[in-house]
Amino acid sequence: MQNSKISVQDICSIAIMTAITAVMAQISIPMPMGVPLTMQTFAVTLSGIVLGARRGAISMIIYVLLGAVGVPVLAGFSGGFQHFIGPTGGFLLSFPVMAYLIGVGTKLRKQKGMFLLFLIFGTAANYAVGVLMFCILMKASFWTGFTACVLPFLPTAVIKAAAASVLGLKLQVRLGEVMQWT
C-alpha cells in the first residue's frame, strides 16, 4: 500500500479475516487451568500472513473490539469486556500485536529465516502477554502461568503456525499478490 488510504478491497479483506477469526474461536477445547485450546491463534497467524502487518493488526483490533462490546465472537459464542480483564484476557489483547509481527515477517520472508523468526516473535508475544496477565490476575508464579498457559499448548501452537503458514502463503500466491502487502 503506497498511501495510507484504505480501499474497499482492504475493508472487505479485513472483514473476512475478522469473521474467520470469530468462526475459528468456536473451535474450542476446555483445559484444566481455565485457558481453552482454540483455533483463534490459527486465524490470527493467518491474518498476519494473508493481510500483512497493518491490515492483519487492524482485523484483530476489530475482532477484539467486537468481543469487548459484547458481540459473541469469542470462544463459546461469548463476548463482553469481562473476557478481557479475566485470566485469558492477555491472550485476546495481544492478537493485534501477534498479527502485526507475523505480517512483518511475511513481508521479510525472502530474507533467510526472517519469516520464521517473526512467526516465533508473534507467537511469543501472544504467550508473554497472556501469561503475564494470567499470573497477575491469578496471583500465580511465572512457573504456574507457564505450565497452565504455554506448556500444554506448545505442540498445537507449532502445528497451527505451520498449517496457517502453508495455507496463508499459498493464498498469497493464489491471489497473485493482488494486494500490496504491508
UniProtKB/TrEMBL annotation:
<feature type="transmembrane region" description="Helical">
    <location>
        <begin position="84"/>
        <end position="103"/>
    </location>
</feature>
<protein>
    <recommendedName>
        <fullName>Biotin transporter</fullName>
    </recommendedName>
</protein>
<feature type="transmembrane region" description="Helical">
    <location>
        <begin position="115"/>
        <end position="139"/>
    </location>
</feature>
<keyword id="KW-0812">Transmembrane</keyword>
<feature type="transmembrane region" description="Helical">
    <location>
        <begin position="12"/>
        <end position="29"/>
    </location>
</feature>
<comment type="similarity">
    <text>Belongs to the BioY family.</text>
</comment>
<dbReference type="GO" id="GO:0015225">
    <property type="term" value="F:biotin transmembrane transporter activity"/>
</dbReference>
<keyword id="KW-1133">Transmembrane helix</keyword>
<feature type="transmembrane region" description="Helical">
    <location>
        <begin position="145"/>
        <end position="169"/>
    </location>
</feature>
<dbReference type="InterPro" id="IPR003784">
    <property type="entry name" value="BioY"/>
</dbReference>
<feature type="transmembrane region" description="Helical">
    <location>
        <begin position="35"/>
        <end position="53"/>
    </location>
</feature>
<dbReference type="GO" id="GO:0005886">
    <property type="term" value="C:plasma membrane"/>
</dbReference>
<keyword id="KW-1003">Cell membrane</keyword>
<keyword id="KW-0472">Membrane</keyword>
<keyword id="KW-0813">Transport</keyword>
<dbReference type="Pfam" id="PF02632">
    <property type="entry name" value="BioY"/>
</dbReference>
<feature type="transmembrane region" description="Helical">
    <location>
        <begin position="60"/>
        <end position="78"/>
    </location>
</feature>
